[in-house]
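Write out this protein's structure.
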Amino acid sequence: MIFRLFLAATLIALAGCATTPPRYVVPRAEPGDRVGIGFRTVEVRRVTLPSYASLSEIFVEGEDGAVVEAKSAIWADEPDRAITLELTRALGQITSAKVASEPWPFDAFPQARVEVRIEDMLARRDGQFVLSGQYFVAALDGSSRDRAKLFDITAPIAADGGATAIAKARGETVQALAREIARSGLR
């Protein structure tokens, strides 16, 4: 019994000594000019990410093209949750619509639903952050304005900016995606 208590105390002490890598929050990008859309209410479904991008670690493109973990850097929030909320906020800021992520929190159903499937979200070795994939807009108001569009958005990563610069570039690409969805998908 004494040995078990000693072992438990030792494990707790060792866990306290482990260093946790710093967590990086994505800063909010400037919303820019407003974009008029054809819907008053829009639901954003949870964004899907490639497996490497759904982890808390920040990944970059290595010298040989392999996707590798950035040294001692993790996202402050679950990436799919965070990007869904970033996109929802951005769409709400640049449009005059009532925008919310799923589950839809209002009594009346939304007029449109946006679904985003990201296939690449990576800090490339050429100094660009890439966000590419496909988005879908389902018109739930009976207007038959459904859309399916591909996107490929990049933002520069400040040289020697490390994980902070990667986080800033990610925020800029999500903001650009929101603008693209508003202009091309929600009109």
